[in-house]
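Hey, I was hoping to borrow your eyes for a little while. I'm sending you its amino acid sequence along with the C-alpha cells. Take your time with it, there's no hurry, and the full record follows here.
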Amino acid sequence: MSDPCLRAVLADCARTRRYVTYGALAEQIGLDGAGRITRLTTMLEALMVEDTVAGQPLRAALVLGRASAGLPARGFFLKAQELGHDVSDPVAFHQTQVAALFTAAG
C-alpha cells in the first residue's frame, strides 16, 4: 500500500501506454477491504496536487472508472478543477493529460 508502489504502477502504465481501473490499481498496490477505493482516491488526489505543483501532467489520468466511458471518475475532474486546471471539456483535458504522460514516458 505504499506511495512508491502507486508511483511505480502509474509509471509502468505510462511507459506501456495503457490505462488501469481503480479496482485493478487498488489490487496491484495492495489495498483491500472496505473503503479501498476511497483510500486510493485520497492517494491519487495527493499525487494530483504534487503533479500540479511540479507543472507535470496528472498521472491520475491513467486511472479509469469502469462506468466512466473511458475516462477517470468524476472526482478526478473535480479535483483537477479545484487545482486550477481547465476541465470545461473533460474529454479534451483527459486526452491532453494522457498524451503528455505517454510522451514524457518515451
Observations:
- The radius of gyration is 13 Å.
- The chain has one domain: 3-105.
